[in-house]
Design a protein that fits this description.
single chain, alpha/beta, Signal recognition particle alu RNA binding heterodimer, srp9/1, 2,3-Dihydroxybiphenyl 1,2-Dioxygenase, domain 1, 2 domains, four-stranded mixed β-sheet, 26% strand, elongated
Length: 153
């Protein structure tokens, strides 16, 4: 048995594949189906960072919404920033607390792993300060979280 996330794009699958390939070093396209040469992709299967995806690309009433998102835990601020700015480029939208929508309408959570460490700090005052700071952020900025936690110590 295999479970694969399937995403429905609005005739912009080729652009989404190109964007994701530019951001994830280990992106691997398994298949791309179209109705002929020079035609847009209708179906595709690929892997990003060890996760398998499938996509349909056809205009429909179905739209992405925030009730499902792709959550990425990043090693550090640099990795988080690369994904954040790459995903919001060309029409994406920033949201709160590390959430964004890419230009194709897919919701993402881009979270440096340091956030989880600070939120689980054994000192409740440090954890609360980090959480309150995070709640006021769009893009997660680790240095600000650490400064807030340190000030609460």
């Amino acid at each position: 048995m295999t479970i694969t996330t399937c995403l429905w794009f609005q005739n912009d699958l080729d652009a989404a594949l190109a964007r994701y390939e530019s951001l994830f070093d280990d992106f691997e396209l398994h298949s791309r189906v179209s109705m002929g040469d020079d035609q847009p992709a209708m179906l595709a299967d690929w892997r990003m960072h060890g996760t398998e995806f499938r996509a349909i690309s056809q205009t429909s009433e179905f739209r992405f919404n925030e009730s499902i998102s792709l959550s990425v835990t990043c090693e550090d601020q640099a990795e988080a920033d690369k994904l954040w700015y790459g995903l919001i480029a060309d029409g994406g939208e920033e949201s709160q607390c590390g959430w964004l929508k890419d230009a194709f309408g897919v919701s993402w959570q881009i979270v440096p792993k340091r956030l989880y460490e600070l939120l689980s700090d054994p000192n409740p005052a440090r954890a609360m300060a980090a959480q309150q700071t995070m709640l006021g952020q769009q893009r997660i900025i680790v240095a600000d979280l650490e400064a807030a936690a340190d000030a609460a110590s």
